[in-house]
Amino acid sequence: MPTIRYERARLLARSHHTDPIARKVMSNGVATFDLTIDPRNLSKSELISVKVAMGLAGLVAVALGIIVLVWPAATLAIVAGLFGLYFLFGGVARVARGVFMTGATGGIRVLNILLGVLLLVAGIIAIRNPLNSLAVLGMVIGISWLVEGVAALVETAPDASKWFGTLFGAISVVAGISILLSPIDSLAVLVLVGGVFLVISGVSQVVMGFTFGRGARA
């Protein structure tokens, strides 16, 4: 009977012991993938891998942000290369999380893989920058940060890292929108905005790595 099947699905969605890959959230009778990363559904090795990935991504962001800010007379090619490296590293980390984080839901794994591919493409475009255009680089950075920020807000874990994940997502969204809506006609402006964001977001990701999995609600 349809009613019985719906009730069984609703009860399974409420249970914390349901297979995390198959678990879905029922809303108004429609099944949707759960896109949050719940550390309770991850094995110890997966949990450590996510923490390390977050921490490394944060350290890379901080390092590149500082380099961007202090590099004397940085050219467009240098700045594009540094941002490209950031996106490439982030893309590889996201794809790896999506492929190997088997304890997560199918939705969050797909989200990580798609975002990872987007970041990889953004990194390649930024490094190659065939038109050698400041506008193209600004657009690539803005779109990537906007999408990454939305994804970070969606997947925020129900643990001690929640607030730092929300902070990272919010900053990323604001920075992405700012770059997309503001006319970037000066390399110095892009360097300042981008460098500051990389440092702040990097610190947030490092803290997320340390706190991920702590205080997860039962």
TrEMBL record:
GO-annotated cellular components: plasma membrane
Cited Pfam families: DUF308
Record keywords: Membrane, Transmembrane, Transmembrane helix
TM stretches of this protein: 52-71, 77-96, 108-127, 133-154, 163-181, 187-212
Annotated PANTHER family: PROTEIN HDED
Protein name: HdeD family acid-resistance protein
Species of origin: Cryobacterium mannosilyticum
